[in-house]
Amino acid sequence: MGHRFMELAFTPGVLAAQEAQGSRRAYEGFEAGPAYGDELGPQESQFVLARDSFYLATVGETGWPYVQHRGGPIGFLQPLGDRHLVFPDYRGNRQYISLGNIDAGAKVCLFLMDYEQKVRLKIFGLASVSPERPERYVDAPDSVRRRVERYWTIEVQGFDWNCPQHITRRFPEPRVLELVKSLRDRIAELEAERSA
Questions:
Q1: Which terminus has fewer CB within 10 Å in the chain: N or C?
Q2: Locate the Pyridoxamine 5'-phosphate oxidase N-terminal domain: which residues (predicted)?
Q3: Are residues 75 and 153 in the same domain?
Q4: H helix runs in the chain, sequence order
Q5: Are 54 and 32 within one domain?
């Protein structure tokens, strides 16, 4: 029992690698006690709702992994309760690799990033799809202009917050424009003075 994400991720091969690399002992404390890290709390729900993109990993029947970027308006990925996430599948390049892969096996991994704050959340889950919008899912305001082909539901099996050590900070365009607004205003003021 213990930390549910690690229970799922720490396969015999992973445990052997940890032992060989000398990190095994550091993780032993996470394996004791009752199960945790399999129900989203307020912190996880707020983080999920603030994302405008995430990465989705699936594995096909040939064993090859596939990672796909999913994006939309802030809030397009929504927690429904403490064990489910829902997002619309917007029409894209029509390769349907992720969709086809979950026919081979429902196991997925979501990787959610906040590059500005250097925070990431990893989620293991079981995926299913439906052409119908789940009852409690609320479409984001600008979803009207995007064509939704289906809705994905992820049943959370475990999650883990990750260390920020190697995350390179990045800022979304609206934030950059906000940060440089005073500089642009000052440049315009100086140019106006100079040409007067």
A1: C
A2: 45-135
A3: yes
A4: 4-9, 12-21, 24-27, 42-49, 97-104, 173-195
A5: no
Q: The pTM is what?
A: 0.87
User: What whole-number distance in Å separates Cα of residue 166 and Cα of residue 113?
Assistant: 12
9 and 25 share a domain? yes
Burial degree of 178 (CB within 10 A; 0-12, 13-18, 19+): exposed
Please tell me the total count of domains within the chain. Answer: 2
Tell me: do 86 and 54 sit in the same domain: yes
Rounded to whole angstroms, the Cα distance separating 47 from 173 reads: 19
Token pair of 37 as six digits: 């890290």
Contact between 175 and 50 under an 8 Å Cβ cutoff? The reply is: no
Same domain, 29 and 58: no
User: Residue 17's Cα: distance from chain center in Å?
Assistant: 26
Task: Give the residue numbers spanning the domain of 16.
Answer: 1-36
The strand order across the sheet containing 65-71 reads: 65-71, 53-59, 107-114, 119-130, 148-162, 84-90, 78-79
SS3 content of the chain, % helix, strand, coil (to 5): 35, 30, 35
The predicted-structure confidence for 83-135, as pLDDT tens digits, reads as follows 999 999 988 888 999 999 999 899 999 999 999 999 999 999 999 999 999 99
